[in-house]
Amino acid sequence: MDYDDLVEKVGKKIRLCGPRRDDGPLRVRYEDEEGDLVSMRSDEDVDMAFGGKNQVTLHVE
Fold it and tell me: GO annotations under biological process (predicted)?
């Protein structure tokens, strides 16, 4: 999965839950191994987040 696919899928899921207060672009972050939130902005960031993991916690604003 690349960055654009991820943002599209997350956006669709959010729209199913109801309207957003903000129509701006989604801000997607993930928790790294140390518990820090890391912004996702590219395909490489998606690879880093999901690399070898079965589950990833995403934070979306």
Answer: establishment of cell polarity; septin ring organization
Q: Which amino acid is at 27?
A: R
> What gap in Å lies between CA 33 and CA 50, rounded to an integer?
12
Which pLDDT tens digit goes with each residue over 35-50?
999 999 999 999 999 9
Question: pLDDT (tens digit, 9 = 90+) per residue, 2-18?
Answer: 999 999 999 899 888 88
Query: Which residue ranges form the domains of the chain, and what is each CATH number?
Result: 3-60 (3.10.20.90)
Q: How far is CA 25 from CA 33, 44, 52, in A?
A: 26, 19, 28
3-state secondary structure (DSSP) of residue 42: coil
